Fold this protein.
Amino acid sequence: MTDPSTDPDKIIGTTPDNALRNADRADATPDGGPVLAADGTPLKRSLSRALRAQKLRALALIAPLLIFVLISFIAPIGDMLFRSVENQIVSDTMPRTVTALRNYDATSAELPGDEVFEAAYYDLFLAAERKVHTRLGSRLNYEMSGASSLFRKSGRGLEDIGEVYQDQFTDLDENWDEALPWAELMGDPEWIAAQTAWDAAPERRMPEFKLREGVEETLPRTAAAYRTFARFMQTEEGDSPLEEEPWSAVHTALYQDLSAADLSGYSGPRSDMVIAADALVASDGFETISFRDGFVEVDADWLEPEIWQTIKIYSPPYTSGYFLNSVDMQKTPDGPALRDEDERIYGLLFQRTLFMSLVITFSCILLAYPIAYLLSNLPARKANLLMILVLLPFWTSLLVRTSAWKVMLQQQGVINDVLVWLGMVSDGGRLVMINNQFGTIVAMTHILLPFMILPMYSVMSTIPISYTRAAKSLGATNWTAFWRVYFPQSVPGIGAGSILVFILSIGYYITPEIVGGTSGIFISNRIAYHISSSLNWGLAAALGTILLVVVLILYWAYDRIVGIDNVKLGG
């Protein structure tokens, strides 16, 4: 059976739905024809237009709030979720190396082939020029200790490999160390003309570098290296390739091309330079160095398979490594594995955070309930006066309140001094109440207590006192009247305050950081550390995501056991 008060067809009076139904009936009348509005349009169309305008006005009213929530809440959470799996820095910084490592068996204890060292040379050389090799080192250092210093050192040292060839080519002909001869050898004549005109009047956009036709077939490695150099100079440095001498890596690529093919019959631009360089490379006295040996001269750690295994493991653009680290596991060539026992810290932090948050919540319930009961049963004048004392902590800085507890709880603090004066403890046996879990629980209970009192008070103030009086008049004792009549009606306030205090406490980090020491910090302190100090944003995002999921699961469990509909803030 439908309720007449909610059934649109039985509501007496004009509503948009009833008006549309009436318009439909009028339109369906065979002899009456469509009912027209004042402006001559069919009534149904006019009502639909008015209803649509009403909905648009309502949407416009809530649009600022929706946009604010989207920007300040939904977007940051989405960014956090993305950062917890994003790992594109490896593939973006070392694309050739990632490709070369595809056939490398990371489970073996062997080093990769020479082609991997060659690819790593060109990747790291360009990364060092772009000054992003240190960022890559920092990323891999999260997974392998020492990777950061290795990449920083290699960024400076790989220049020596190319200088072996650059010096010999320059000794043969100084033009090999000049910008224009290289541009004539590698660049398209039309581009050279356009670039020359731009150099003379740099007002418009610099013409994009273009390789000379046929040079990629003759000198493939050199063409690729020079094109990278030229476009880097144009786009990232804003310099003309006609005025900047090439990198030493371009000379290395030239050596590779000359040693791989016979160019004694070369007849293109700068043929005399190329033919002479080809003869020099073919001579017995030409000095060479392998890429593997070059890396070893920079740092012997490049001969450790672990660094290459780490690069291969974290080469995909997306990774589960951050989440594995968040649960004290790690990615290995053989798959996910637990970390060593002395390295497992996050599981302990999650357990401690949940345990201490629950203890703080129950402490607030025990302290807040009698205060809220007293406030709700006092006359309004006295209750308002006492409410000022409840709200007073909100007018005091959080840092000041936390620091005050640090002063009071320390071994030479006020509380210990009073206990010694009363003879309850000896001067040499002062209690340790700071830099541990006890100090964190005490300080956070004090800070979060008002968040428990206010929801309880708002619910208790709506419970009629006549209920308990009626119970007593029927023979119930004070305890029975309270437990059977009053307390069940106050449970929604307890639920609202518990959710508020628990969610606030599980994400607190300032108070545990100041008074918690090493045994009283929360997982939020590690998240803050990775965001502000170690800059491991991926791990911080993964920890935050897990914390968010844990809170949602607990919220779901609370809803199934207690029922979220039973949570009230008053009324």
Observations:
- The mean pLDDT is 87.
- The longest strand covers residues 329-332.
- Strands lie at 329-332, 335-338.
- The chain has four domains: 8-83, 95-157+291-313, 172-282, 346-566.
